[in-house]
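During the no-cost extension, the postdoctoral fellow (Dr. R.K.) reprocessed legacy sequence entries with the updated structure-token encoder. One reprocessed record is reproduced below for audit purposes.
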Amino acid sequence: MESAQQTVARVSQELKCSPTSRRVAEHLDKQDELRHLRQEFLIPKISELSTSDLSLVDGAEDCVYLAGNSLGLQPKNTKKYIDEELEKWAKMGVHGHLKGSRPWVWAEENLEEQMAKIVGAKPEEVALMNGLTVNLHLLMLSFYKPTPKRYKILLEEKAFPSDHYAIESQIRLRELDVADSMLIIKPRQGEDTIRTEDIVSLIEREGDAIALVMLSGVQYYTGQLFDMEAITKAGHAKYVNSGAGGLAGAYIHEKHAHSIKPALTGWWGHNLKTRFLMNNEMDLQPGVNGFRLSNQPILLVCPLQASLEIFNQTSMKDLRKKSLLLTGYLEYLIRHYYTKDPSDPDKPSVRIITPSDPEQRGCQLSLCFSCPIRAVFEELEKRGVACDMREPDVLRVAPVPLYNSFADVHRFIAALGSALSASGAKQ
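Re-encoded structure tokens follow.
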């Protein structure tokens, strides 16, 4: 398979232009078989961003939105679906539970087959419920069963705070010592990401004491994609573009359908066929569906439906194929312009801490700068670029294959050069 760098070189030769020319980006966009998906999303104009400086950029242009790893763009159908439910509530009242295109009693269940396709699971192994951290707690209450000898939880350094805090509180709930019970794996000295062989080695070495392995699918800070199959066959977690406080998913393999029971139960874990008998005799659904607590807020189901419908216009295979090229193109341009130059130590440079191997990263590059990052970040915002800064010194840039274009990447690189100049960094 042709690498992103090889693709850029080939296209530039065909077009007889520089590999860094905007013409390369335009050509790649014309050849992109997923380019139509961009039209399914609302992309803010630069003038609509409160951080932009209209004396520097054209406010009528679309912003360069590269923050999908933090907050995905809004699908166009989101407002339509929410308005439909508000209208149904206004006109039908309580009858909305059983009427309409998405009856409230089982609205989220209509989406689980679509979600299952994204995560590569069976529909009965996936449930859409609660927020992410609530789901983590519900699952850990059932799957984290510490004993005097096997009580540790393995997680990565700089795990996302919600994951870290959930683990801490679960350990305290069992009245165990947090420092002794949290087994945190770090990168090797001088490295930015964690080697798979180090994770596997630690599991083999500490296995008798480990009760639970909990790693994110994509490490949020570095963008590293963990080899979950090599690390554990017991399960995996995935992060997908979502909105703030969006409805989260949970996954439990079918082999646990009857052996693992929820520690906390609610009405929505009851079999739908007998749920409304109201006899207070639990007829628990097997597997992950038994972990439901209550019916999901319909106004959260609506944006999830709008998003999943777009995902299901394509496949994860095709999205991944575009993502590899899109992120590789970004990497190519950053290395071309901002690789450290020993002959000019004052020239600003960028170090990519995300793995260079495309198979070991998601659709994100985490960038470290040789100059103060906050000033650069603020100058990017003024130029209509939406990305994400994380303390102490990382800029997370995520070109999402659903809606980002190669032209977006090229515009980002141009804006970055201007931002570095404006922030006082020597060019």
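Residues 17 and 43 are 30 Å apart (CA to CA). Residues 233-237 have pLDDT under 50 and may be disordered. The remaining legacy entries will be reprocessed before the final report is submitted.
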